[in-house]
Design a protein that fits this description.
This protein is of the alpha/beta class. Helix content is 34%, strand content 27%. Helix 2 (38-46) links the parallel strand 2 (28-34) and strand 3. It has helices at residues 15-24, 38-46, 57-63, 76-88, 103-116, 130-140, 159-162, 178-194, 302-314, 322-341, and strands at residues 3-8, 28-34, 51-53, 69-72, 92-95, 120-122, 147-157, 198-206, 218-225, 230-239, 248-256, 259-264, 271-276, 283-288, 345-346. A 9-stranded mixed β-sheet has the order 14-13-12-11-7-10-9-8-15.
Length: 348
């Protein structure tokens, strides 16, 4: 028998993808939707396989023992309060990143999660890419020796092509710009791949475009990890693509005492290049990324959702937790502080 899932919020940019994932999941029987705009929530529910309008509203969903999971698709400014209420009501919560308006709010989410034993899972889905597992294993096993440096890039389409009116580009509603929306994935993945935490940050962020937004569209963040690696996360809404010019430019590169590893995340060269003097990996290896597993193309991050659902069923921590979301937000806030003051900032 499948699970009934409550979804609160229908205006999230990733909302259609998340809903498509839920609708395609064989372990989900019903999707109960609610949004303060009840008319839009009804419209979305009517067009969604397994979808129903939650007539009892948010309070009804949180009080219903037959709804064990809440998918939180609220804006950043509203997300933490909903997650906390759901955790206290005995629910597990699945939500998009960053999961809160700021680190202080996420710290409260983490504290409530710890106190209740219920989990919030931010959708840091890149952790489950098969190549991510390979890269993490190689780095942590010493394939390139001690990791000394890294460079991670996430360049994507310009704000003008995304719609400057979207709440993502306005600080009143969003945790920030390119850092909490996309670069956050690389900050989380670096923590995951290096099995390490960020201790210091230096950064510059800026709004380069002419659109009416008040968050950064360009960022360069230098980070030091507690195991010693120093490197940069570079991100921006910078591309104006045309045919043969892709809408994203993503890669991660690592150098160490015994070699280097470059991961091309997308495109015709997707996979990784390992150059190593380690006896178990000596030489140069080019490994292509495997094709997506069956079913992972439906909706948004179907494999990550499946891992979350399995963790809930088995009463174990999900693939990412509130503490992961908190660590990322602390790094981002340190980057904003560094950019504003021009000094190096320690991360607690």
């Amino acid at each position: 028998m499948g699970t009934t899932v409550g979804v609160i919020g229908v205006f999230h940019p990733h909302g259609p993808g998340h809903l498509a994932t839920l609708a395609a999941c064989e372990n989900v029987d019903r999707i109960l939707l609610w949004d303060p705009d009840e008319g839009e929530a009804r419209r979305v529910a009517e067009g969604l396989h397994k979808g129903e309008f939650a007539a009892g509203g948010q309070e009804g969903l949180l009080a219903d023992a037959g709804v064990p999971i809440i998918v939180n698709l609220q804006r950043d400014c509203d997300a933490a309060a909903l997650t906390i209420a759901a955790l206290r009501a005995g629910k597990w919560v699945y939500g998009d990143k960053p999961g809160a308006h700021n680190a202080a709010q996420m710290a409260e989410v983490a504290a409530v999660s710890d106190a209740t034993g219920n989990h919030f899972c931010p959708c840091y889905a890149n952790r489950l890419m098969s190549t991510a597992a390979d890269v993490s294993r190689l780095l942590q096993s010493g394939a390139i020796g001690d990791v000394w440096s890294f460079n991670a890039q996430w360049m994507t389409s310009q704000v003008s092509l995304r719609g400057a009116q979207n709440w993502l580009f306005h600080r009143q509603f969003s945790a920030g710009g390119i850092l909490p929306w996309l670069a956050c994935h690389w900050i989380d993945l670096l923590r995951f791949a290096l099995d390490s935490e960020v201790t210091e940050v230096m950064a510059m962020v800026a709004t380069q475009c002419d659109e009416d937004i008040d968050v950064e569209d360009t960022a360069s963040v230098i980070m030091r990890f507690d195991q010693g690696a120093i490197g940069t996360v570079r991100a921006g809404y910078a591309l104006n693509p045309f045919p043969q010019y892709e809408t994203t430019d993503l890669y991660l590169q690592f150098e160490g005492s015994r070699g280097g590893l470059t991961w091309y995340v997308r495109g015709p060269d997707a996979g990784y290049l390992l150059r190593s003097s380690h006896p178990d990996h000596a030489g140069v290896q080019r490994v292509e990324a495997p094709p997506p597993a069956a079913g992972t193309g439906q909706g948004y991050s179907a494999d990550f959702w499946a891992a979350f659902l399995a963790a809930w069923r088995e009463h174990r921590p999900p693939p990412a937790t509130a503490h992961d979301a908190l660590a990322v937000l602390r790094v981002i806030e340190a980057a904003y502080q560094s950019s504003a003051t021009g000094v190096r900032v320690s991360v607690t």
